[in-house]
Amino acid sequence: MDTKINAAPTIYAVEYKPRQLTDIDYDDSVHDPVDAKEVYELVRNINDPEHPYTLEQLNITHLDRIFVDDSENYILVQFAPTIPHCSAASLIGLCIRVRLLRCLPERFKVDIKVVPGSHQSEASVNKQLNDKERVAAALENVHLLEVIDQCLSTASMDDL
Question: Rounded to 10 degrees, what is the CA torsion of 144, 1, 12, 122?
Answer without folding.
Answer: -50
